[in-house]
Amino acid sequence: MVFILGINFPEAQLVKRTLTSFYGIGPLVSSRIMARLSIHPTAKVGSLANKQVLDLTAELSGMTIENELRRQLRDNIARLRDMGSYRGRRHAMGLPVRGQRTKTQTATANKLNRVERKG
Questions:
Q1: Long-range contacts: 67-73, Cβ < 8 Å, 24+?
Q2: For the chain, give me the number of helices (H) and strands (E)?
Q3: Strand locations in the chain, DSSP E?
Q4: What's the confidence (pLDDT) of residue 92?
Q5: What 3-state class would DSSP assign to 43?
Q6: Which of 91, 61, 64 minimizes the C-alpha distance to 76?
């Protein structure tokens, strides 16, 4: 088990898959991090040297990920709601925010955006 930012990862797991398990890091960002640290795309977590794990941890700790990113999104939505902007009112009512159609098909938007608006 390899310990990265407080989470244990199995040694057989790919590094790219490990990085994408963090909230806020997708496939493209994980590929760029691996390229920057010169880690092979098919490398497994167990094959990383100790220095590479430390470099990876340092790189991730400098990024806005996990709870900090969630808090930032929640604060942005709260700011929009407090201002009373159009987008803020749409968030508060639980309606689609980005111009989607509302005559039909709002159930999906309500379901997907439910967690995001709570604050």
A1: 69/23, 69/24, 70/23, 73/116
A2: 6, 2
A3: 2-4, 7-9
A4: 87
A5: coil
A6: 91
Half-sphere exposure of 23 (CA within 13 A, CB side): 9
Q: CB–CB of 39/52 below 8 Å? A: yes
CA distances to 4, 21, 23, 66 from 7, rounded to whole Å, are: 5, 10, 13, 12
- Model confidence at 12, pLDDT cuts 50, 70, 90, reads very high
Whole-angstrom distance, CA of residue 115 vs CA of residue 110: 10
pLDDT of res. 97: 87
6: left (phi over 0), alpha (psi -120 to 50) or beta: left
Lowest mean pLDDT among 28-32, 53-57, 75-79, 108-112: 108-112
Of 40-49, 90-99, 101-110, which range is least confident?
101-110
Nearest to 60 by CA among 96, 92, 28, 34: 34
Q: Specify the pTM.
A: 0.79
